[in-house]
Design brief:
By secondary structure, the chain is of the alpha+beta class. The chain has helices spanning 7-13, 24-37, 43-46, 55-64, 71-85, 184-196, 242-253, and strands at 40-41, 88-96, 110-117, 120-124, 137-138, 152-157, 160-167, 170-177, 207-212, 216-221, 224-228, 234-238. A seven-stranded antiparallel β-sheet has the order 5-4-3-2-8-7-6, covered by helices on one side. The chain has a five-stranded antiparallel β-sheet with strand order 1-9-10-11-12. Helix 4 packs across helix 5. The protein starts with 6 loop residues before the first helix and ends in a 19-residue tail after the last helix.
Length: 272
């Protein structure tokens, strides 16, 4: 029999007690709860493994084992949840453009979700690192849209669309897409590149992120832990040891690893 998502266990994982009806308010609430409860992280990649994208494996890792994951895992699980609830939902492919120049062409190694509610199309993305959405946004509008965290918008340039975020008064690209769907085989290929290719940035840095209440963002990038407030002000501190890193992962992100675990980041101040 095909794997069936246990919605009760999933809702407990994201601390959700709201409606199960496939409505826009449910979509917003689930997006916020997921992004604040299941951290974005690439730790399995740094431990030398390629994430398993089968729905049962995603449920086991992100829900039962209380781990996080990156876009194919996060949005793969969310896709299964939304479909089970009765939403009309499809995975779309994208290129991540965060902190990249427009003349650079990054690989198409990102997936987000298109959800139809009534007569409108919505974008939700719980797997784009420290910028994961905490509410769905309209897909066919270029107006600024508020979320519980940062304002967002969708702009178009010819055949390309850009998901943008407003930070410190400036609209910045998050990702670029063309509304092309991303079937399972394309996700499998992109997942291999992301987890195994030596040029993948997930092979070369440790990244953990989680949205938090009151518009805050928690981010761990290599040995720097930061908390960004809703007004854009950030407080940062340096992680001084591998043991302290494990404490931060547990206390700030709910990610528990055995004592002595080392993540193989090139140039890490803590040898693997």
């Amino acid at each position: 029999m095909p794997f069936q998502i246990d919605l009760t266990r999933y809702f407990a994982r994201i601390h959700y007690r709201g409606s199960r009806e496939p409505t826009l308010s449910t979509l917003h609430a689930l997006t916020a709860a997921h992004a604040q409860s299941i951290p974005f992280e690439n730790l399995d990649v740094l431990l030398g493994s390629t994430p398993n994208l089968e729905p049962e494996a995603l449920f086991r890792k992100l829900v039962l084992e209380e781990r996080g994951g990156y876009c194919f895992e996060q949005n793969g699980l969310f896709l299964a949840v939304l479909a089970t609830l009765g939403f009309r939902v499809a995975p779309l492919s994208a290129r991540v453009r965060w902190q990249r120049r427009r003349d650079e062409i990054p690989p198409r190694t990102h997936m987000f979700l298109r959800v139809e509610c009534g007569d409108e199309s919505w974008l939700t993305d719980v797997g784009v690192g420290g910028l994961s959405l905490t509410a769905a946004i309209r897909l066919d509008s270029d107006a600024a849209q508020n979320t519980p965290h940062e304002p967002r918008r969708i702009t178009r340039e010819g055949a390309r669309l850009f998901h943008q975020v407003l930070l410190n008064g400036e609209w910045l690209d998050v990702c670029e897409f063309t509304l092309e769907e991303m079937p399972a085989i394309d996700r499998t290929l992109a997942n291999w590149f992301t987890s195994a290719h030596p040029d993948s940035h997930f092979k070369n840095r440790l990244l953990v992120a989680r949205a938090a209440p009151e518009g805050r963002r928690l981010t761990l990038l290599n040995d720097e832990f930061s908390v960004r407030a809703a007004d854009g002000h950030s407080e940062k501190r340096t992680i001084s040891s591998a043991e302290e890193l494990l404490v931060v992962l547990r206390q700030e992100f709910g990610l528990c690893f055995p004592p002595g675990t080392r993540f193989g980041v090139p140039g890490s101040p803590w040898p693997s």
